[in-house]
Task: structure prediction
Amino acid sequence: MNAPALPPSAALRRPGRYRTFQPADLLHYAVLLLLALFCVLPIAVMFTTSFKLQSQLFSTGLNFFFVPTLENYREVLFGDNFDRYLVNSLIVGVSATAITLVLGCMAAYGLVRLRFRGRRAIGYATLLLRTVPLAVLAVPVFMIWSQAGLANSLAGLVLLYVAVNLPFTIWLLYGFIQQVPVELEEAAAIDGCGPVEVFWRVVLPLIRPGLAAAAIFTFRIAWNEFILALVLTDRATRTLPVAASLYVTDIGVDWGKVMALGSLIAIPPLIFTFLAARQIITGLTAGAVKG
Amino acid sequence: MKTPRWVPWVYVGPAALVMAAACLYPVLSALRLGFYDWSIGTPWSEARWVGLDTFTRALQEPAVWHSLWITLLFSFVCVTAEMVLGIALALALEDRPGRPLRGTAFFRTLFILPMMIAPIAVGLIWRYMFDAQFGLLNALLGVVGAAPQAWLADEHLAFAAIVIADIWQWTPFVFIMMIAALANVDGSVLEAARMDGANGWQTTFKVKLPMVMNVIVVTLLMRLIDAFRVLEVIYILTFGGPGDSTEILSLHIYKTAFVGQQLGSAAAISVLLLAVVAGLSCLALRLSNPLAEEHP
Result:
């Protein structure tokens, strides 16, 4: 009732209905394991490298057994304004996500439930905007933000991230709101709920998985993105990925240090993935695979 | 009771306004900028109207055509490999009707990790893996007795490197899409095919895959659109080098604007990229419109 793309997750949600193990499944597991290794090994290499000194890189290329050091993390955490960049990243990530969700919910609800002139135009424009390459945006946004005094401010970055994430959020929530029975809303309205209360008490609880997916995808972009942030920030408003990108130079890369920063940036999305894999898969398949 | 005409705009207005101001307006002004000659740092009043000059000059630029070629080649190779691998793996590992194997959910969580981590991390990881001195790939080559390669310093190997990184990151996406689609296939149809004497291959290629063809095409288009938009991973991994062997169109636009300081030319090339992506997007929308009136 409340998710457009349930199939894989719906089957997984019922424990006790797993098939009994058969010898043929061994091959199945072997392939799964190989695939998992292919996906995880490079990430593991990043984390292990972050615990190595530059001098250890040579001798321990393939080796996961070495004396780990926290030196890289110490350097990253206590040097180069890490705290400031972290706070910037958090401000940008959290506020962009919150604003995108509120505006996206309102817009998706309006598009599903109300019929008005311009509805189709807004819908199609939204879908097309989702695919605009960021490189295309970088040039004009840099110009316009500079003229409007938004360049080098966190607000300018948040505004941009909200705009680039709204299309996907609206697209995703549209499918979820569509599945909410309109009779429930009508019943609540007859019981005396105003429009806001209907949304808050009836619609919102039913679209929670969609909200979770939208929040994760928005936060992921706002937290990870660095090209637009590189163009639109300065020393004071830099985010963590921008700081990391500046560690990569032509002369050489201090691998331990940059991998430590890369690992720190990767941790929040990894945590979200483990907490909400089902919602993420729902988000990925939304729109193309109907339940 | 009739709703006043302004009510819908209370809902849709704020989002529409933000998207118009920070997405649509910049795209349109990129179009306009293409008609001007202007450098970063100079006031806009000094910009010179040059008409279609910038566009025609951009189209005569060999570097632009080279970038377009690299972009097309990159998208084609990556998306083909990802589709074939993703579909094959999904067919091999799909759920038996209604009764998944234990641990399936955990494995799927691992498969989406490459998509979720930051492009900066992906770029760093693969730059390290391909590093001539410390990289894991050369270490592996050493184990099998092959000579180490200067991956990112060789034109062809660097191109292979950006392709491998993209395949690593996005094959799981195709896999997840296909698993979801295959789970939707009506088992009784497959049963009927089997009763009529179809063998395994026939059921797969004549019944199962045609039933999920719509999802395959949409996944293909989504991957193509995203492959055309790739920028961050390649920015870190090769920055277009060596020479311009991995300079995809997005990166060429970025460099023209922020290294070469030629915003007008960058905007003109942007229009080219935008046209390709918009064409693909319209095609995708025709095939699967998530804003369709009702789900069947």
User: Anything to note?
Assistant: Chain A has one domain: 7-20+71-285. The domain at 7-20+71-285 of chain A is CATH 1.10.3720.10 (MetI-like fold).
